[in-house]
Amino acid sequence: MAATLADVAARAGVSTATVSRVLNGNYPVSAVTRERVHRALGELDYVVNGPARALAAATTEVIGVIVNDVSDPFFSIQASGTQWEAASADLLAVICNTAGSPSDELKYISMLLRQRVRGVVLTGGSREEPEHLRAITKLIGQALSAGTKVVMCGRPAPPDVDVPCVAFDNEGGARALTRHVLTMGHKRIAYVAGPAGNSTTTARLAGHGKALEEGEVETSVVVHGDFSRASGFDAAMELADSGVTAIIAGNDLMALGVIAALRQRGIRVPQDISVAGFDDLPAAVDVVPALTTVRLPLDQGARRAGRIASGVEVVTGPTKLWMPAELMVRESVAPPRRQTQ
Amino acid sequence: MAATLADVAARAGVSTATVSRVLNGNYPVSAVTRERVHRALGELDYVVNGPARALAAATTEVIGVIVNDVSDPFFSIQASGTQWEAASADLLAVICNTAGSPSDELKYISMLLRQRVRGVVLTGGSREEPEHLRAITKLIGQALSAGTKVVMCGRPAPPDVDVPCVAFDNEGGARALTRHVLTMGHKRIAYVAGPAGNSTTTARLAGHGKALEEGEVETSVVVHGDFSRASGFDAAMELADSGVTAIIAGNDLMALGVIAALRQRGIRVPQDISVAGFDDLPAAVDVVPALTTVRLPLDQGARRAGRIASGVEVVTGPTKLWMPAELMVRESVAPPRRQTQ
DNA sequence: ACGCTGATAGTAAGCGCTTTCTACGACAGG
DNA sequence: CCTGTCGTAGAAAGCGCTTACTATCAGCGT
């Protein structure tokens, strides 16, 4: 149906090699010939056959991005940044939603490898069980030995795997945030963490823990959600009467849920209970009270990852690219009322 | 580097044809042979070469999705739905951000066509200028004649183009919303529309206009934003002192901006000015006051589009699939104060 | 004049897979 | 026993491109 190089060549009265050359501009072709080829190209509405080119040239113009869920702003911001960088390298980006499922993650990586993508960006990350880690390590090994770039974005590389790694300072951010809450005078604090085992959860929890150790704390409780708004809501319903004066959520989505739950219970934020989040999603400024949270340069990090996966930027060795976290002090955290003491 | 079919065949002591057959399971192979091939496959860590297969089979396992910006929830929700459906058809989804630029849109469609994707979902949509329309019509024609499915999602097909079209009832939703505002007693109303020329803007504006005609209105003013929060903010700054009692925004993002601006000006929502949005983004319930808006079944529509583009669902003729809008009455619209009369 | 060089263009050998067509036993029917 | 069938497997011809390698033809130095 579609015109092929041979059709164009015939029409222009040249060989396919010549057409290929004017298409790729990697070999001198005389001006008149080039002109003739261009005309034929236009007249036939020629469209390069990507798979054929990929087969012959042994390289594609595609990279892959693996996220938990593009409809979650945390990931969509990253996906967008990566896609953007891919586009400026003239590459397409295929985006895969794992919904946090390790098996889906493996399935998608295999599919991408099968497509011989130029590079893969792995974001998010699921429970890091040994078995999964082993499987993913093997896939990464295959990818690497096939020349496919692999970049971790916001998650650690599996042990003994040498891939560049865009690391957001979750621990530092969480520590600064909890320290801020402590500084405000809170002594009874609840932390609504993300799913256990998740590397992001772990890092944030660690930062939180360090800050707690450094401060004076009466009560500290940790419960686990799953990073969804609903899980934050549920957690807050439990926590509402526990006597804590501050609830720190593992991400903004859960913080939003926490605020909604507290409001529903008639508890004022921050007068009765302070709430903090993490990520600084766009919505953080629209909530009332505006959310005190931690900003991660997700877009920047993802772009960096995208540039590496696209081959625009070359890094060597087991490079860890640290992206700093920034505390965003707004209104949802205030000093506790001196209560019942 | 990577093992090929021939390597596997050699190792299993069979022909490549046989290996191909056990891989695809589309031809009888005896149990013992199959077993031997499977072993060889495993031992060599064989990974199918997608481009080669695509070339030989003249079909890929990929669809494309074109959006304005995946980091905008309006689009990320759609992208996610489409991707999900693609995945359940074992296809990958490449996602392209046009940032609303017609030329980028054309560029991406060409790139997708070059990749010989199975189908393309076009969402969003930019200014629909004749020239662009013509170009896009041509590309769609090429796609169609190459057997690539094309589906419009939330935007009209160009004139004389026969493609299935998932249509959200923007006009009906806008009409219901404005009617609701009028019912509450507002007579001086401002509408912050999306970018002029955009088909979604036009439809919503039309619905708004019809409702206005049906009601009693003293003042009505329309200004244009660009669907971004910032543009809503700016518009509201202008409108704050205009004496309107209600501001209807063309989407939730702008409504959020409007609310923020009004708050900054010390104007209470909804006591002083009511605000309404459109889309029912997740954040709509977290704002204070909760946003009265219109819900569009974006996810459902996008999934439908994804299924069509994947070839799972077959529609024939110039089918228009209407997706209903639903008015979400919350707290940001209230009766106007009887003022200064 | 003659071989050389440099600039262009053509030839053809793949890239790794799918698939049609053919080949080969084994087995049953006449 | 011969032939027609059925069930498997192999041979080989592409799919549409890229890219050595080769060929051609000016122009040039000697």
Could you characterize what this model shows?
Chains A, B: This is Mgl repressor and galactose ultrainduction factor. Chains A, B: It comes from Kibdelosporangium persicum. Chains A, B: It holds the Pfam family LacI. Chains A, B: InterPro entries: Cro/C1-type_HTH, HTH_LacI, Lambda_DNA-bd_dom_sf, Peripla_BP/Lac1_sug-bd_dom, Peripla_BP_I. Chains A, B: Keywords: DNA-binding, Transcription, Transcription regulation. The first copy, chain A, is of the alpha/beta class. The first copy, chain A, folds into three domains: 5-48, 434 Repressor (Amino-terminal Domain) (Orthogonal Bundle); 60-168 and 298-310, Rossmann fold, CATH 3.40.50.2300; 170-295, Rossmann fold (3-Layer(aba) Sandwich), CATH 3.40.50. Chain A is 44% helix and 16% strand. Chain A has helices at residues 5-12, 16-24, 31-43, 50-57, 73-88, 102-114, 130-145, 170-183, 199-214, 229-239, 252-264, 298-310, and strands at residues 62-67, 92-97, 119-122, 149-153, 165-168, 188-193, 219-224, 246-249, 274-276, 293-295, 320-323, 326-328. In chain A, strands 2-1-3-4-5-11 form a six-stranded parallel sheet, sandwiched between helices. A four-stranded parallel sheet of chain A has the order 7-6-8-9, sandwiched between helices. In chain A, strand 6, helix 9 (199-214) and strand 7 (219-224) form a beta-alpha-beta unit. The longest helix of chain A has 16 residues, at 73-88. Chain A is elongated and about 90 Å long. The mean pLDDT of chain A is 94. Chain A binds a DNA duplex (30 and 30 nucleotides) through helix 2 and helix 4.
